[in-house]
Prior knowledge:
The protein is an alpha+beta fold. It has one domain. 34% of the residues lie in helices and 14% in strands.
Amino acid sequence: MTDRSRCGFTLIELLVVIAIIAILAAILFPVFARAREKARTTSCLSNLKQLSIAAMMYSQDYDEQILPAYLFSGYTWIDLSMPYVRNQQIFVCPSYTGFPGYGHNHCNLGWGASISMTAVAQPAETILLNDNGYVSNPNDPPSSWVEEQLGYGAYYTRWPDNEPYYTSDPWRAVPRHNGMCNCAFLDGHAKTMTMDALIGPPEGSANCLWDVY
């Protein structure tokens, strides 16, 4: 005769199963989150790559003038890029809620007017655009910066030479992709950078990615 008392789970067995599921979730959820962020990083890089190509097309149309951050006529680099991309979504980073998600290296590459590409010593090592956010802990090391999800963005990026605004208005390159920052360079390529490589080298040094020397 079948023992009907063994047809279900005991409370202890259910608790053991729940505990195992909770442990597996605690292990796997961070892995899934990093994998999802990796996909967003790739999508963001694609955006920046297309924007850098648009910037090169702008330069070809305007006698090798670099796409400026802002013109005194009131146009920003976003307005000037739009005829070449015709897609507003491309200015939105998948890991940020604000528009735009990217900032321009305005301090050295054109605020108020354009500068010539010939003025830049190493275009392949000069940042044009990057992941940009408002840093809530600007006095901490760059790798620890936390950006506020404000729902809007800034078209410009501050870096250490851009004082007093660097301190008072900390829209900066941010490590929003698993501790890394995506950047587009003047020669048209885009890549993911560490914060130490972005912020550490001072202006005028061989490894500085923001100046034009």
